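Blinded run. Sample ID left blank on purpose so nobody reads anything into the name before looking at the predicted structure. Input follows.
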Amino acid sequence: MADVSSMIAITGIGTALPPYRMDQADTARRIVDALSNNPDSGRWARRIFKQCGVESRYTCEPDLLLEASVCRYLPQEDSSMVPSTAERMAVYKRESVPLATSAARAALADAKMDADQITHLITVSCTGQFLPGIDAALIRELGLVPSVMRIPLTFIGCAAGMKAICLSKQLVSGDPKANVLIVCVELCTLHIQPSGDREALFGASFFGDGASACVIGASSSQHQHVYQLGDERSVLLPESADEMIWEIGNDGFDLYLSPNIPRLIGNHVPAEVAHLGGDEPPELWAIHPGGKGIIEALQSNYGLRDEQVAPSLGVLREIGNVSSATILFVLKKMREQLQEQGTERASGLALAFGPGLTAEMIKITYVASDVPSKLSTENTEYVS
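Blinded prediction complete.
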């Protein structure tokens, strides 16, 4: 039995977006203009930009809003104008810290927690690197104690935000007094490639920039609208190592996403979900929108209502895929939906996928207020 006062939960969530909005239709137009000498690629780009489920994204790089003839990131004849990986990393170093700080401050405020109460700091990113890193910068910017336990999770991919949540749950399980601050920041648009290859255009069609953060610790009466955390599972899916690849290139990071990913997830994930227990399918589905096809595969497999996948599709539509940061955007939007519906309690699953293919998942229970319960989340089946 677990005393509800020591229930491990996400007690606060914060998000932040950079100031430059990329309209999907306008971005597609400019990319097609850049591919005027390659009409086949232009037609394919127009189609994938329209079908991927994104209407807008955000970027930290104003250059990406320029017309094709002067935008350094889009396909062009003069390759010397293309930003090098070093240039892109300089932008990442300049822009990532303020964005991460904004999301972290919002999460602390939402959790009603002072910065000096944080015992562990997990920083997550796969779109840039520098040292001293974002963790050191956040200690200064937020006023965290210098001795805070720092755990950087770098270059893990889209599943890393979910990995950080599962790790935090384990940390608090071992030390009920721990308060973990997770901060994810991803500047995906810095890696848009000046290429007409289908792989590069596909990646350019739905990734965006943003940051998210959350506080995980023991929930108490001061907390409302929390996600209690239950059993978690991390698994490497079989025969999928080459389906999602993220490597460092000369012009930013190179991404390859196989069209087989939704099918592989649909085939293998149900068995992994079953390992977490529960005779009934989850009511809540916080799905990382790694692509529209992933959401559709799980919706079809489980017969999910449109309402159940609305938070994931809504995040994809409004800000695109923000890699590791996206799952907290989804959980925040789902929380808003549950508040609007007046839901007091509902249980389900949060899950994300990354290179490997890796699946990270955890059982969640949304609780509107800290009402005593006889059962811990870990012993609760999926019920609404």
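Unblinding after everyone has recorded impressions. Confidence is low (pLDDT under 50) at residues 1-6, 371-384.
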